Recover the amino acids of this structure.
């Protein structure tokens, strides 16, 4: 039997169906790509100060209620592998989006090459992060932009078990379409499961061609317990 690795789990995802979901709904959910043990391993890193380059108190900055920490370089092997494998699967979608919107740049096929471009523009700080919310916590709608170079897709992976660890805390996505009211979705993820969504905007096909839809994301109020997630953002920060 083949080893059950991160790469093999990512390869088993139906990426054709995932792309169809992105086109239809603006996001796609993935069945668990991390095991409960791997989720616990990553959550357990949170109190290890040397693993992170910075901590953000969301209430102090009026971002919400909760906190998050950005990993320091080098990334933990599990996070680095996820980032590399997932990038390789969505870079074609990202390039198709940019072409549809008649935007530059085009993204290279490998994460290492893309990060070289980020670093050349002064974006040298890793952006993968762990977010932590307790009862009453939430995250205001926002976009994860850290410099001029922005990869148009990102992932959030649930580390906690919604059936046991917390209530509430749905993942929120809001789209602002031109000359229309905003549209929102509230998504519940399985432990180890992920959501793929637009970092800033996405193309939508209308009767007059392709137009741009702005996207923001956040987290609804946690009613009980502890909610922890892993964010996989592909562009680095200044």
């Amino acid at each position: 039997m083949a080893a059950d690795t991160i790469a093999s789990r990512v390869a088993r995802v139906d990426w054709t169906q995932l792309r169809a979901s992105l086109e239809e709904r603006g996001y796609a959910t993935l069945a668990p790509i991390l095991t409960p043990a791997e989720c616990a391993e990553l959550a357990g890193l949170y109190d290890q100060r040397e693993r992170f380059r910075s901590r953000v108190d969301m209430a102090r900055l009026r971002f919400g209620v909760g906190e998050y920490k950005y990993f320091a370089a080098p990334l933990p092997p599990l996070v680095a592998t996820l980032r590399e494998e997932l990038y390789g699967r969505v870079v074609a979608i990202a390039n198709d989006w940019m072409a549809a919107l008649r935007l530059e740049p085009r993204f290279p096929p490998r994460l290492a090459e893309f990060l070289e471009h980020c670093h050349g523009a002064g974006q040298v700080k890793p952006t993968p992060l762990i977010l932590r919310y307790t009862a009453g916590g939430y995250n205001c709608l926002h976009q994860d932009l850290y410099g001029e170079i922005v990869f148009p897709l990102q992932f959030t992976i649930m580390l906690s078990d919604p059936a046991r660890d917390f209530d509430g805390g749905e993942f929120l996505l809001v789209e602002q379409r031109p000359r229309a009211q905003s549209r929102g979705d509230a998504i519940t993820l399985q432990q180890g499961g992920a959501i793929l969504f637009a970092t800033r905007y996405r193309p939508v096909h209308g009767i007059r061609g392709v137009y741009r839809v702005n996207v923001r994301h956040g987290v609804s109020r946690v009613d009980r317990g502890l909610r922890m997630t892993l964010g996989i953002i592909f562009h680095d920060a200044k």
Summary: The chain has a mean pLDDT of 96. The first strand starts at residue 27 and ends at 30. The CA atoms of residues 135 and 224 lie 5 Å apart. The chain has one domain: 6-232.
